[in-house]
């Protein structure tokens, strides 16, 4: 019984993931960047700890983008019309994604920067 519930729960979670992949262009952009970073990781033979940091950073960006999408949907549902309070909530949620995106660029530069330099 519990197993069946877990499988159903997983199916809903997978449906949520598919919805963001299909409907959110920013999420698709992050997924493209993720594929490029992972390919670069194999090319540069990252160490285990470097992989761990890169994967955690990728996860952070994808998760915050998903949370941002959830907040946008709740706001659109709560107040479809223009509202200054909704604007601030959505702007802050977008700011969260921006912060993680900046962190991911810095992490990428720290890990890949020296390796790219060695190639030049
Ligand atoms: N109901 C609203 N009231 C006031 N400002 C809003 C409202 N909806 C959106 N905005 C403003 O428009 C910006 C963009 O909102 P929107 O919901 O279109 O998200 P988005 O960043 O375009 O994401 P997506 O492309 O995923 O829809 C918000 O950050 C906010 O400044």
From TrEMBL:
This is Diacylglycerol kinase family protein. It is a multi-pass membrane protein. The keyword Protein biosynthesis does not apply. The keyword Transferase applies. InterPro entries: DAGK, DAGK_sf, UDPK. The chain crosses the membrane at residues 27-45, 51-71, 92-112. Belongs to the bacterial diacylglycerol kinase family. GO terms for molecular function: kinase activity.
């Amino acid at each position: 019984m519990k197993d069946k519930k877990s499988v159903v729960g997983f199916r809903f979670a997978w449906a949520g993931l598919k919805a963001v992949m299909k409907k959110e262009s920013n999420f698709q952009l992050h997924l493209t960047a993720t594929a490029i970073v992972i390919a670069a990781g194999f090319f540069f033979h990252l160490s285990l700890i470097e992989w761990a940091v890169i994967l955690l950073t990728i996860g952070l960006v994808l998760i915050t983008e998903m949370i941002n999408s959830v907040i946008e949907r709740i706001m659109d549902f709560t107040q479809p019309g223009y509202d200054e309070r909704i604007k601030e909530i959505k702007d802050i949620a977008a700011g969260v994604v921006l912060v993680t995106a900046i962190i991911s660029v810095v992490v990428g530069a720290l890990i890949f920067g020296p390796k790219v330099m060695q190639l030049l």
